[in-house]
Amino acid sequence: MSTNHIINTIFGEFQKSLDQEQELREVIRGICKDVDQISREATTVLQVIHHDEAAVSSACLKARELFEKANAGYGKLKEVVPAAEYYKYQDHWRFMTQRYSYLISLTIWLETGILATHETVASVLGVSAEERKNGFHLDIEDYLVGLLNLCTELSRLAVNSVTRGDYNKPLQISKFVMELNAGFRLLNLKNDHLRKRFDALKYDVKKIEEVVYDLSIRGLLPKTSDN
Question: Which residues, 6 or more positions from 108, have their beta carbon under 8 angstroms from its beta carbon?
Fold first, then answer.
């Protein structure tokens, strides 16, 4: 067998492998495009929290319906992405998943006032919370970025709540974000993107503190508050 024939055979296999990978990437892109569009719809639905308190409950219900659709989309991703190749293709869904982590966390906070755990967010999306055992999963760093995005949205909500005369909400937000901030400070963050995003949290904290301080000097803090 000639050397040329051997080389052609080897590189022919390389090309076959590259073509298969490209086909898989196209399938993943198609699924992610549809699932990402659902996240944008959920983002729009939840914007009502900034101007209509009475519509928050119905917005959360609508967001939950959209999360169910996203769950089905993530199910398709689990089917097509090889279990051992999660990180090879992660860039396709990383930012989308960070947005869902934020949206789910926001919805749960609006409904209950508590933190959505990593396991809870993973469950809503229909993926595993365990990184090493189950292939497709909710990466912890994506979950944490979602929480940081949540803090930014809540700092905005604190300002808009005062605008519409709700002086309790900023205090609730302040307590929650301060506790989250303390939790993040326990972490030794090595991921550059996550660390930079955490550095921005101090501005969200400052904005919320300014809102609460302004309420305090104006004598508008609720009398029953412990703050």
Answer: 114, 115, 116, 120
**Token pair of 222, please?**
């609720």
Question: Do 208 and 154 touch, CB atoms closer than 8 A?
Answer: yes
Task: Check: CB of residue 163 under 8 Å from CB of residue 105.
Answer: no
> In 30-39, which positions are buried (b, 16+ CB within 10 angstroms) versus exposed (e)?
ebbeebbebb
CB 128 within 8 A of CB 116: no
DSSP codes joined into one string, 47-89: GGGGT-GGGHHHHHHHHHHHHHHHHHHHHHHHHHS-GGGHHHH
- pLDDT score of 69: 98
User: Which residues of the chain fall below pLDDT 50?
Assistant: 225-227
- DSSP character for 5? H
Contact 50, 157 (CB under 8 A): yes
Q: Which amino acid is at 173?
A: I
> Taking the model in full, what pTM does it have?
0.89
